[in-house]
């Protein structure tokens, strides 16, 4: 089975919507897809939560969101919002969300 990790770095909502859409599309076709909020993208979690974004909610409810970067969320001052959203915390790479685990598990990494 093909496995893809979307490693979202951008804080651009439109760009991140495409990460969500692609992950959902792959998941619905039988592929395994995961999403990590890293870098500026952590700021989008409270945005998606407050607007009750249906695409984000569908990906979240499908278990596609692997987590968010603890270090970046603290720098961007959204850590508490991310925790409140129920998204798993990731800090395995010096406080940041690393790719290594997924690469070792044969995921193809797409960073946007």
Structure description:
- The chain is of the alpha/beta class and 112 residues long.
- The protein has one domain: DsrEFH-like (Hypothetical Protein Ychn, Chain: A, 3-Layer(aba) Sandwich), CATH 3.40.1260.10.
- Helix content is 43%, strand content 21%.
- It has a five-stranded parallel sheet with strand order 4-3-2-1-5.
- The protein is globular, with a radius of gyration of 13 Å.
- The mean pLDDT is 97.
Topology:
Layout: E1 3-8, H1 13-28, E2 32-37, H2 44-50, H3 54-61, E3 65-69, H4 70-75, H5 79-84, E4 89-90, H6 100-104, E5 108-111
Parallel strand pairs: 1-2, 1-5, 2-3, 3-4
Overall pLDDT metric? 97
The poorly predicted ranges are none
Computed structural class: alpha/beta
In which order are the strands of the major sheet placed? 4-3-2-1-5
**CATH first level:** Alpha Beta
Number of domains: 1
N-C termini distance: 23 Å
Q: Give the C-alpha Rg.
A: 13 Å
Could you tell me the CATH topology label: Hypothetical Protein Ychn, Chain: A
Number of strands: 5
Tell me, briefly, the overall form. globular
